[in-house]
Specification:
This protein has about 300 residues and is of the alpha/beta class. Helix content is about 40%, strand content about 15%.
Length: about 300
């Protein structure tokens, strides 16, 4: 598995297998086990997904390795419901117990609006404490715009290693996305894109899908539109990349994308297609407040 070194020295696999959405209301154990068998060494979860025990089960069933061979990433912050009191310590301990592990390789705050009654600074201090105690080896953010990252930068002792954000051709050019990406790069914070395949899965038939299929067809050799969009997101952000699948042939398709690259002209074709359509998001709409969508508002 191709890897990337983060700003804290953590070596992270460039591809992460996500366990949200597509696995809702199902037992994801078989899919996670197949992901491990096919070569994934990075599994992403979150307290709100409620599937940590399935990840534990998949790792236990995997004959090719054990816990020490899997990079496990999780998030805390379960809901934005008014008055819900988050307890990050309890959340982490429950996650560790359900995963059957003594540590997490990476732990993220799931969003800047998911920390009540803690302030942003207090929440990050909790993360730094978990890191100092060896409970988590790398700490980061999810769905954080530039303004909140800038606020943290004035007080952090440990810099976030990652900011995990929705990223695809239909949202990349939004000003808040561009300012976030620029700030992350200035602080050497890796950007982990997710929902990269939204032009195919969420909003099919649009200009970004047409452009991705055009690039894929010209490349030939079995290259798919999904691979083109994954490569586009990786080259735009630098990765690591978060994606998921359930069908067996898709695992190889995702891995094969690591050996592909897009030319500047091909990148611009995808980007221009995204710019030609209304800008939209699937997740964290309240956090960003800059795009309309029929997606999940948190």
């Amino acid at each position: 598995m191709t890897t990337k070194m983060l700003n804290d020295g953590t070596v992270i696999p460039l591809l992460a297998y996500g366990t949200a959405t597509v696995h809702n209301n199902t037992d994801p154990t078989p899919s996670i086990l197949l992901a491990l068998q096919k070569g994934f060494r990075h599994v992403e979860t979150a307290r709100v997904y409620g599937n940590e025990s399935f990840i534990k089960s998949a790792i236990e069933q995997w004959e090719g390795g054990g816990r020490e061979d899997v990079f496990i990433q999780s998030n805390w912050g379960e809901t934005s419901a008014v008055g819900y009191e988050h307890d990050p310590e309890r959340s982490l301990m429950e996650t560790l117990t359900l995963l059957g592990t003594e540590y997490l390789d990476m732990y993220l705050i799931h969003g800047p609006n998911l920390m009540y009654p803690l302030t942003l600074v207090e929440a990050w201090q909790k993360m730094e404490d978990f890191h100092a105690r060896g409970l988590v080896r790398s700490i980061g953010l999810s769905n954080f715009p530039a303004e909140e990252i800038e606020e943290l930068s004035r007080v952090w002792k440990v810099k976030p290693s990652v900011n995990q954000v929705e990223y695809h051709p239909y949202c990349y050019r939004l000003p808040r996305m561009q300012s976030m990406l620029a700030l992350c790069h200035s602080h050497d914070i890796a950007v982990q894109p997710f929902t990269c395949l939204a032009p195919l899965t969420r909003w099919p038939g649009g200009p970004a899908e047409v452009a991705a299929r055009e690039v894929a067809e010209k490349k030939g050799a079995g290259v798919s539109a999904a691979q083109v969009l994954l490569v586009w997101a990786r080259q735009m952000t630098g990765g690591p990349l978060l994606t998921t699948c359930k069908k067996e042939h898709q695992y190889e398709e995702i891995f094969d994308s690591l050996s592909l690259s897009l030319s500047p002209a091909e990148m611009e074709l995808i980007s221009a297609a995204g710019r030609s359509a209304p800008q939209k998001r699937r997740y964290a709409l309240k956090v960003w407040g800059d795009a309309a969508s029929t997606g999940y508002v948190r």
